[in-house]
Design brief:
There is one protein chain. This protein is an alpha/beta fold. The protein contains 8 helices and 9 strands. The strands form 2 sheets. The chain has a 5-stranded antiparallel sheet with strand order 6-5-7-8-9. A 4-stranded parallel sheet has the order 2-1-3-4, covered by helices on one side. Strand 8 and strand 9 form a beta hairpin. It is globular and about 45 Å long.
């Protein structure tokens, strides 16, 4: 199939190596579990990348040939090189690459740099979560019911220290009464960002059919538009004529 969306799933891939309980849920890593269901879509070309790979999984030839970068990090945010973060940000702002941070990537360096946030929030023990679809007309929410009963997930709560989302797609409710803006989009330069909250390493959220559909829809939405060359390579006097 021509013009496949090139997706790179970046994962720090540490919990599964050191914790047997996590490895039992995701034997080959969270990123591999995500790739398994995304590979069912013939309009995607999916590759894996991990923190401990050469160049932290994102050498220039990989990053520059990625249409949508999915990101999962938790215990090693601080190990991501600042120079790599700047490259990722530039690929979004100038190159139009989509960025799809998941779960604890709210504190990742790329998310904070691209969106402009501290990423801080409230969190607590695992609780029963319902995810409410509050913008059913959006492409990312296509085919998603009024709410998703996710079962057990790690509780994230407000206040979530992010800029006002350009679009709020999902709000989550947790059994102890907390609520959370669990699906948010941003437009940054030529690129688009979709943050989605589910995905704690000790929970099975990535096996949920609706979570899988949302991530697929999110990739489709985040993919770059067909636009021209960046203006900084042009003579501005000619560009405005």
């Amino acid at each position: 199939m021509a013009n496949k969306i090139r997706v790179t799933i970046w994962h720090e891939y540490r919990h599964e190596k050191s914790e047997e309980a996590i490895r039992a849920i995701y034997p080959n890593g969270i990123h591999a579990a995500i790739k398994e269901f995304l590979d069912k879509h013939d309009d995607l070309e999916v590759r894996l990348a991990a923190l401990d790979d050469p160049d932290q999984g994102l050498p220039d030839d990989v990053l520059n040939n990625t249409d949508v970068l999915m990101w999962w990090g938790h215990m090693a945010h601080h190990e991501v090189n600042d120079a790599l973060v700047e490259k990722i940000k530039n690929r979004v702002y100038d190159g139009g690459m989509g960025f799809l941070p998941m779960h604890s990537a709210h504190m990742s360096k790329p998310f904070r740099a691209i969106v402009g946030t501290s990423g801080k929030l409230l969190w607590s023990d695992d609780q029963h979560e319902l995810i409410w679809n509050v913008l059913p007309a959006h492409p990312i929410t296509a085919g998603i019911p009024e709410y998703i009963d996710l079962g057990t997930e790690e509780m994230y709560g407000e206040p979530f220290m992010i800029p006002q989302p350009d679009e709020l797609l999902f709000i989550s409710w947790f059994e102890h009464g907390y609520v959370f803006r669990s699906g948010c989009t941003y437009y940054r330069g030529r690129g688009k960002v979709f943050y989605f909250q589910p995905g704690h390493e000790a929970c099975r959220s990535y096996y949920n059919e609706y979570v899988q559909k949302i991530l697929y829809n999110g990739i489709k939405w985040c993919a770059p538009n067909d636009f021209g060359a960046p203006m900084h390579n042009c003579d501005y006097r000619k560009a405005i004529l």
